[in-house]
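Thought: the user wants the 3D structure for the chain below. I'll pass the sequence to the structure tool as-is, report back what it returns, then summarize two notable features.
Action: structure_tool
Action Input:
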Amino acid sequence: MGAGVGWSYGLRRLIDLNKEMELSCKKEVAALLIPSSETLSMFTILEMLMDKEEKIGKCFKKSGPAGVPYSDFPTFQDWMANWTDNRNLEEEFPTKYFQTVGSNLSAAMEKGLDVIEPGCGAGRHTMAVAKKYPNSTFTAFDIDRAQLERNKVACEMMGLTNVTFLYADFCAMPEEWNGRFDYLMIYDCMHDLPHPAQAMAGLKRVLKEDGLVTMMDINTSSDMPTQVQTPISAVEYNISLHHCMSVSLANGGVGLGACWGSSSLRACFRMRVGRRPK
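Observation:
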């Protein structure tokens, strides 16, 4: 079933058409279809992925490439920023997120911590947290130089002076960062990395001995027969195949993808960082 046909079929099951040719849907469905909906904004990634079908197909050939690189997804950061903005709005981030983690962290952030966010992308999480906790300082890094420059402009427009955006790699962070940071916050990036295990080991190096780690990532099961019972799993595997796995493999990585699952993630984290992520 093609992406367009599948999308139309999905809408037909969500929207009712009566004999008077009037369209209607349930309130909970309507909430998902408004432009600012986190769910709808996530599905818009399919538009970005559809024209990669031929390139992805070549990756399945023995003589083909390992994957499709980041450079072939020039609009990814824009899509990610929009999805993150809508999700943060719906989930009242960062307030509810830090309530979930615990009051001790929030209190410490109000006093002032040295915080790092790796793989920050468009910097939406860093800027939101930095705005809420002005006494803490934030270092956020990524490998997308152009996006980092845009992040700096956005910070200036927001009047944030406690954020530094830098170019850096997970597996080659500066030596002067060793044991520096109080708090490591990770959002939606570990599953895209070429070598997540080595990245986690590098992150342990820059964290203080009593430092805290929180991670937010795609909530899937590491057991595929269990995961496919989830209605949205077909979309998650589709996105993972066309982007997450592909960009990792194209960079000589392991290609775990978005659906590597929470159990595998926690096991890798315990092994490399020596503690369980919140």
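Final Answer: Structure generated. The CA atoms of residues 98 and 227 lie 28 Å apart. The first helix runs from residue 3 to 14.
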